[in-house]
C-alpha cells in the first residue's frame, strides 16, 4: 500500500516571518501593519492610510497571517492569542515606544570625532557634526529593520559607522575609504568598544572590493559634491546593493543660488535608474561648507530593475579642490619628461600607464611606468601590491607621503621589502615629481609569497605560503590551522590583502615574516 507523503502545513506566523525576511530592511513597514492589527479592529483602507504600505503588500501580509487574523464587518484584527505571539516574535511593542535622546551616545560621538584625523582638503573632507552622525544612525534605526542587516558606508570621514555601532549594535557595518587614517581610527575605536564594524580600503575610481558586490542592505555615502563625484559614488553603491529591497542613502547639498548644479547632480542619480523616495532638507550639518549653508539634504534612493545594468562614466577627477579636482586633470606627459623618467628606470618610456589595481599587473615585456601624479597617498602601495613586473617605475608627486621623509621611505621599504627592492629618485624628472623604481626579489619567503599574490584570499595564500616555505612537511589542514593561530583578525583571512587597510596589511606581513 502506497502512503502519500504530505509536508506539515506552515504555521501562519512562520509564513509571516518568511514574508518579512524576504522584505529585508523594509520589513519594519510590515511590522507596523502587524502592530496596528494587534491593537484593534481596523478597516483595510484605514490600515493602508495609517501605515502608508501599499494595498497589494497589506493583502499579501493578511494572506500569510491566514487564520491568525479575525476578519469581520470589513475589519481585520489579530486574534487575541496570535496578538501576543506576534508582539513577542516581531518586537511590535518597540515600534510604539520611541527611543529617548541618548546624551551618553552623543558625548561618545563627540570624543570619536575629536580623536579622528583632520580633514583632507584634497579629498573634499568637511566634517559633519557629531549630532549629525548620531542623527543619521537614529534615522536608519527608526526607518529600517537593522537587526542583522548589512550596512555599507562608502567613505566615512564623519564616522557614521561608529554612530551605528552605538545605536544599532546588532547591525553589521562595513566602511570603505581611501583615507588610511580614517580606517585606522575606526578600527581602533571599534576594537575598543566592541562594535561590529569592519574596514576595507578602496579608491572608488578603481572599483570596490569584490566581497562587497551585491552585499549591502543599506548604503550610506556623503560623496564629493560634484556631478562626477556623486555619480561615481552612486554607481559604486549600486554595485553593492543586495537587491530591490536595498536602499541608497546619500548626502548632497547645493546653494539655492546655483539650482542648475543641483539639477545636474540629480540627473546623475536619475541616469542610474534611481527613484527619489524622499529628500529630507537640511538633514546634515557641517563644520564648514558655508557656501551651501553648512548643511545638506538626505536623499533616500530606491534602485530600479535597470540600476545595476546602467554604467556611468568614471572620471578620475571627482573632487572640487586639489590635484585630483575636475579642473586639475593633467595632459599627457611631454616627451622631455618621459625621456627623463626613462633614464631613471633604465629603459625607454613611450608613455605613462594609468593607475589601477583591481587585477594583478603582469606585463609581458618592457618596463612599465605608471602615472601616479594624482595619487592622494594610498595608490603607490596598492600599485606595488598589484604589480609583479621584474622592474617597474611609478611617477609620484615630490611631496608624496611615502617619500617625504626618511622615516616614511623606510616604512614603505620594510612593508614591501620581501617583494621589491626600491630606489627612490626625488625631484626627478623635475622639481615637482619623483620616480620610484622597483626590482622584484626572488620569491623565497612567506611574506614575499603573500605580497606577490595580493589579490587572493589571505587565508588561502598564507596557507599555500607555509606549505611552500616550511622545512617540515605540512598538510593543508595543518597549514590552515597554523594560519588561524597566527592571524590577529580571523575575518581578514577571507579577504584580499589588497583590500585591507594599510595597518592591517603591515600586521599580516610582519607576522608572516616572523
Automatic annotation (TrEMBL):
<dbReference type="InterPro" id="IPR029063">
    <property type="entry name" value="SAM-dependent_MTases_sf"/>
</dbReference>
<dbReference type="InterPro" id="IPR051720">
    <property type="entry name" value="rRNA_MeTrfase/Polyamine_Synth"/>
</dbReference>
<dbReference type="GO" id="GO:0032259">
    <property type="term" value="P:methylation"/>
</dbReference>
<dbReference type="InterPro" id="IPR002052">
    <property type="entry name" value="DNA_methylase_N6_adenine_CS"/>
</dbReference>
<dbReference type="GO" id="GO:0008168">
    <property type="term" value="F:methyltransferase activity"/>
</dbReference>
<dbReference type="GO" id="GO:0006596">
    <property type="term" value="P:polyamine biosynthetic process"/>
</dbReference>
<dbReference type="Pfam" id="PF01861">
    <property type="entry name" value="BpsA_C"/>
</dbReference>
<keyword id="KW-0489">Methyltransferase</keyword>
<dbReference type="InterPro" id="IPR002723">
    <property type="entry name" value="BpsA_C"/>
</dbReference>
<protein>
    <submittedName>
        <fullName>Bis-aminopropyl spermidine synthase family protein</fullName>
    </submittedName>
</protein>
<keyword id="KW-0808">Transferase</keyword>
<feature type="domain" description="N(4)-bis(aminopropyl)spermidine synthase C-terminal">
    <location>
        <begin position="106"/>
        <end position="290"/>
    </location>
</feature>
<dbReference type="GO" id="GO:0003676">
    <property type="term" value="F:nucleic acid binding"/>
</dbReference>
